[in-house]
Design brief:
CATH class of the largest domain: Mainly Alpha
CATH architecture of the largest domain: Orthogonal Bundle
Strand order of the largest sheet: 3-2-4-1-5
Keywords: Hydrolase
GO biological process, one term: dGTP catabolic process
Largest sheet: 5 strands, parallel
Organism: Phocicoccus pinnipedialis
InterPro entries: 4pyrrol_Mease, 4pyrrol_Methylase_sf, 4pyrrole_Mease_sub1, MazG-like_dom, NTP-PPase_MazG-like_N, NTP_PyrPHydrolase_MazG, YabN_N
GO molecular function, one term: nucleoside triphosphate diphosphatase activity
Length: 387
Amino acid sequence: MKITIIGLGSSDVDQMSLRIYRALQNSEHLYLRTNDHPAVQMLDDEGIKYESFDHIYEANDTFTDTYQTIADILIEASKDKDIVYAVPGSPLIYETTTEMLLSHAKNSNDLEVEIIGGQSFIDVCIAALEIPVNDGFQILDGSNLRFADFNHHQHTLITQVYDLFSVSNAKLELLEFYPHDTTVYLVDKAGSIDQRIIKAELSEIDHNVPTSNLMTMYVPKVESNALDNRSIHHMNDLFNTLVGEDGCPWDKVQTHESLERYLIEEAFEVIEAIETEDDELLIEELGDILLQVGLHAAIANKDSYFDFYDVLSRLNEKLVHRHPHVFGDVEAETTSDVHQVWNKQKEKEGKEARVKYEKEYADIILPWMKETIHNKRALRDILEGEN
């Protein structure tokens, strides 16, 4: 059994290679992932019979289910005949059904998959939008966007945007990172005679959206201090600069020991912000705690002991290890259950004795810190009243 996967390219049939054209003409059993492609008109004009899977999209709730259903149908159809399966663009660029078929072929001895590539949407989008890829370039999947993937120092193409719903979902994710007035683009049928480019502010990009299987979103590279300031990497660079040879005269001579008092001071100020229920002050004071972490890490990095990312790595490992009820198969339904799990995980780390003393210290020190803060505020009120 054999499935030949053909890429129809990203635009008009004029861009199609002779090999692909002949493969379509000679196919006896042709399947299309979708008939929403300029090449389909050529198939109709030449009387080439095919079966499309557009109806599968309507019958499933998720793209994963849709693509798995298509792959299953193709595998079943290929059991008694060789078939040709045509997809938009290139079969190897963001084509989930190709991945599923290749995976099946790899794990079985009864299926052969041949791929005949077509022009990728990437090439035509770059040309249509005149993207300067040498400045930095990335491609993201619009159906699985994450805040951590965004990089405003890179020109970004976002695939898997087909309609108003998918474009709106991508917009909402992007708004978590980019300012609402960021200029973005939608390009539909790039490279074809029907090419259309929509330019708008991010907050309005879903106001005039076509439904198209050949649509891509583009977010240009942005130079922005505001976006830099939201980056943990930028923060780390700032601290390394401060303690470096050309850095701040005060910062670059600090040691872990010389900074001890400041960590205590900042802890007091965080508690005071909490006690006064001042959110803006709490933002600032939590930042000052992070300042202490960043400065300690930069000092250690200068001496080649560890760096900020070592601290992050240890923290993330600890979070996962101590939450097996979230990231593993341990059950914990109540707060009491969680405490037991937490302490059990600490025991595995050999920190059970430390847990006891840490709790005793906190029980003594925290009330004292709160009383000190209250007395400080009371004294300040008295002094301000005298003035």
